[in-house]
Design brief:
By secondary structure, the chain is α+β, with helices and mostly antiparallel strands. About 15% of the residues lie in helices and about 30% in strands. The chain is built from four helices and 13 strands. The strands form four sheets. The protein has a five-stranded mixed sheet. Strands 3-4-8-9 form a four-stranded antiparallel sheet, with no helix packed on it. Strands 7-10 form a two-stranded antiparallel ribbon.
């Protein structure tokens, strides 16, 4: 569990000014709200009002270098040691936010406190939670935790979520709160 009083978000990599942001610092950024649908690969979805700062405002404060292509989200999740990524062009074009609130309530620990990336039009595995570090990178071949296990790196909702070209494609078995577990899929 992440402690609100001691939490620090590190923003580093291809930036002019590495950042170490407290929870209060994240709250101090201008906050916007969006109604967005979080779609799961299982076919269910969750629509909510998400509120928080834009990733663009954080990137602008850090001074992202021109050669940067993606943001890699490192998490503190022990069950799903994690990291995922989104392209900077997608983030800027869609004004992607990090949600500190879900339906006007501070994001609880089980939903990803201190924030969850609101990766609009992407499957839930791109909606990183429990983030402790944002690494700015030029590695366009980077694959996150689920993507390294066979999930499509693009993650577009409505598109394929399994990459059939991956050498170890896996199928996910999930419980109702979408905590993921994997097992080999003999059909691929």
């Amino acid at each position: 569990m992440i402690d609100k009083d001691t939490y620090k978000l590190t923003v580093d990599g291809l930036v002019e000014k590495p950042l170490s942001l407290s929870y209060a610092d994240l709250q101090a950024f201008p906050q916007i709200s969006k109604l967005a649908d979080l779609p799961c690969v299982e076919g269910w979805s969750f629509t909510a009002k998400w509120t928080g700062p834009t990733l663009t405002s954080i990137m602008d404060e850090a001074g992202v270098k021109p050669e940067a292509k993606i943001l890699i989200f490192h998490t503190a999740d022990d069950a799903n040691p994690g990291y995922s990524s989104l392209t900077i062009s997608y983030i800027r074009e869609n004004n992607i936010i990090i949600a500190l609130k879900d339906n006007d309530v501070t994001l609880p620990p089980e939903r990803g406190f201190p924030f969850q990336v609101v990766a609009e039009s992407k499957f839930g595995y791109k909606w990183s939670k429990w983030i402790t570090r944002i690494e700015v990178s030029d590695n366009e071949n980077f694959r996150g935790y689920w993507e390294s296990d066979g999930y499509n790196n693009n993650g577009d909702a409505g598109g394929p979520h399994i990459s059939r070209t991956h050498p170890e494609v896996r199928v996910l078995i999930t419980c109702e709160d979408c905590q993921f577990f994997s097992r080999p899929n003999p059909n691929y």
